[in-house]
Specification:
Elements: H1 2-9, E1 11-19, E2 24-32, E3 39-40, H2 52-70, H3 74-85, H4 92-105, H5 113-123, E4 128-132, H6 138-144, H7 151-158, E5 161-164, H8 172-185, E6 191-195, E7 198-199, E8 208-209, E9 214-215, H9 216-224, E10 229-233, H10 235-239, E11 252-253, E12 264-266, H11 273-286, H12 299-302, H13 306-309, H14 313-317, H15 328-331, H16 350-353, H17 362-365, H18 377-380, H19 402-405, H20 410-459
Parallel strand pairs: 4-5, 4-6, 6-10, 10-12
Antiparallel strand pairs: 1-2, 2-3, 7-11, 8-9
Helix pairs in contact: 2-5, 4-5, 5-11, 7-11
């Protein structure tokens, strides 16, 4: 039976024993020989209510071990914290508030807030490699060009970047030597972040980097092999983005298509720094990827649909839409669905985390969502300023999770949204007609009463 199950499922049962000073436990995991993508049956962070003390012991032990590895003493830990945040005009109060918000966003109890703060401090000392492939460097720009940086952006600015072409001083052979040294010295420990799609056409020769003329494909594969955690930041790195749009002459693909290691996708164009830092902080806490959806995105950041958390949602339910840029509906901040907003088809936390110093997102700025955190958004979501009314399948209702929704159901749900829009619009017009009819009847009745009164007065 065991052998037949192995053949049928393509997976093996494996016991891993994790031992540290505080506790020890056996984790049962399934892994696929081909993909090396792990699915944990039990997660101490996600089943805290089952054994909270054990979860805290695991996290505390890991943080203590990392602090011993990256810091010389408690004094060194405190000095690093002060240098990073005090020198960046972030008050202690602001940092505590940010820590509490991030703890909540990661769906952790408040007791984890001090541990999140420790993890953020450790993150600034963790070996870090950032690769740029086929991209516009929009994510890099979003993180670096901030007038009033948030704690998340400060952490990215102070993180121990051992290799990042856009900001590092060394160039050519020296830069490549620095990258190779980090990969060798911190095998299994360094964080790898990749920005941009990876061209695979002509064996990757559409993109060559560095003094040795290596292809981006070759560099990505060799660097990802021994990384502690791998993160694809932005839509291009996650799913191929614009470089992979039709007809895709360079054969560009997302990071997960060129490595058999698990990849955490942080899509959007650009990605929000909060989502990247939150994911890396969770990795520091537990040493593995957070819970992901079917598209490789952290559930804590991408489990909510923009449409559901949009402040214009009430207007959608009431059938109140912007019909033309600058019309009365636009001035009243009505729903932007009829102007092409893809919020109903997009899973992200833009409406919660927001951009530009946590103050705005597309719909608040007056334009609809373009669905940039979804796969193939450039092909599937265009034209951006027209609603998806041309799908041929009808599925009533639009309430679903990201996994239930699925890539194939995009058109179907589009019809559901369109049907809802049309239905609410018709219903609203019908209600308006009924109200107008009642008003007219009341006016006529009032007019007749007035005439009767006049005739009675004349008789008198």
């Amino acid at each position: 039976m065991g052998k037949s199950n192995e053949k049928n499922n393509g997976a093996k049962e494996k016991k891993i024993k994790i031992t540290n000073k505080s506790c020890s436990d056996e984790y049962s995991e399934k892994y696929d020989d081909k993909t090396d993508k792990t699915i944990f049956k039990w997660d101490p962070l996600r089943n805290i209510s089952d054994n909270p003390d054990e979860a805290l012991n695991i996290v505390d032990s890991r943080l203590t071990n990392l602090e011993k590895e990256y810091f010389k003493s408690q004094k060194d830990i405190d000095e690093n914290f002060n240098n990073v945040f005090s020198a960046s005009s972030v008050s202690r109060r602001e940092f505590i508030q940010w820590t509490a918000l991030l703890t909540s966003a990661l769906m952790l109890p408040t007791i984890f807030a001090p541990r999140v703060a420790r993890a953020a401090n450790i993150l600034t000392r963790t070996p870090f490699i950032w690769l740029d492939m086929s991209d516009c460097m929009g994510n890099t720009e979003a993180f670096l060009r901030t007038a009033h940086p948030t704690p998340a952006e400060i952490i990215l600015n102070y993180v121990s970047v051992d290799y990042m072409e856009s900001i590092m001083v060394p160039a050519g052979y020296q830069a490549e030597a620095r990258r190779d040294e980090t990969v060798k010295k911190y095998k299994g420990k360094y964080i790898l972040v990749v920005e941009g799609a990876i061209p695979t056409g002509m064996n990757g020769k559409f993109l060559t980097i560095g003094a040795k003329g290596k292809t981006g494909l070759e560099i990505t594969k060799s660097t990802a092999k021994n990384a502690g955690v791998i993160v694809a930041v932005g839509n291009c790195a996650s799913y191929g983005g614009i470089p992979a749009a039709y007809p895709n002459p360079t054969g560009s693909v997302g990071l997960s298509s060129v490595t058999n290691r698990q990849v955490i996708n942080i899509p959007a164009c650009p990605a929000n720094p909060v989502n990247l830092v939150g994911t890396l902080v969770e990795y520091i806490l537990v040493g593995k990827a957070p819970m992901l959806d079917s598209l490789g995105r952290p559930l804590w950041a991408y489990s909510g649909r923009l449409h559901d958390n949009c402040y214009r949602r009430g207007h959608f339910e009431a059938g109140e839409y912007v019909k033309q840029w600058g019309d009365d509906g636009a001035k009243k901040q009505y729903c932007l669905y009829m102007m092409g907003c893809k919020g109903p088809f997009t899973w992200n936390n833009c409406t919660v985390a927001q951009y530009n110093q946590d103050m705005s997102f597309p719909m608040r700025a007056g334009h609809g969502c373009i669905g940039c955190s979804e796969p193939a958004f450039w092909d599937r979501m265009t034209p951006f300023e027209k609603p998806n009314l041309d799908a041929k399948i009808f599925i009533p209702g639009v309430e679903a999770t990201a996994d239930e929704f699925g890539v194939a159901l995009f058109g179907a749900a589009g019809v559901g949204m369109a049907a809802h829009a049309i239905y609410t619009g018709v219903k609203r017009r019908k209600n308006n007609k009924e109200k107008d009819g009642k008003r007219n009847k009341e006016k006529e009745k009032g007019g007749n009463n007035g005439k009767d009164n006049d005739s009675n007065e004349n008789k008198k």
